[in-house]
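Running this now, will post back.
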Amino acid sequence: MTPLRQRMIEDLQLRNLAPATQKNYIAHVAAFARFFGQSPEVLDQEAVREYLLYLLNERKMSPENVNQQCSALRFLYLTTLEMPWREVDFPRVRRPHRLPVVLSHEEIVQFFEHVPGLKYRAALMMCYGAGLRVSEAVAVKVADIDSQRMLIRVEQGKGRKDRYTMLSPRLLEVLRVYWRAARPQSYLFPSWRTGRHLNATLGAVDQVPPAGRAARQEPGRDRRCPHSAGDRLLRADAPRALPQERGRTTQ
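Update: finished.
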């Protein structure tokens, strides 16, 4: 490991950036160095500009990916190398503003009816019913469900921030059906590995038949559906989509 790489890792740790962000920043800087075949220490602003244009025009990367690469290089040069450069020396690509595709009531019902396994169905219903990201839903613990105040505590969610979100009566009913069948102790959706929760990728969703997948493959669909879509599902179709499966649960 080069001294520069070690110094950047330490700078990332000191600023307590998320582990995934640290890993991505290091990988992006390494790719930048490989592109020029030189250490970033000897490269200048023009090299940064050339590389970002290459990613955008030759690699056809999305604005989001290019901007993440730009952020990594900005951190390297302004924080680790302490170069006397300005923020404007790291131009960011303007992202097009697109409205999310809101799934219809029928599409949501169709999707949930094809999700295999009680555990995965309940986890995805929590995403829709409470407006959670998948990574937030799978990390919820049994103690985070506050049925008295009708709230769900989300620990270290987006931006590594704690927050509360709503718990509707119908979602509470769905979770109670699941809890009676699975009896989780710590994490509401535990993994088969002791002391860990389900993986945020929810790989079992890939087993949804084509008829159910059609609703989730529309271009531009936001991963976190609006609360209204989840509320419509949970008010009208939760009992049918989540039957009383007592005594067993699918991992």
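The two ends are 40 Å apart (CA to CA). More later if anyone needs it.
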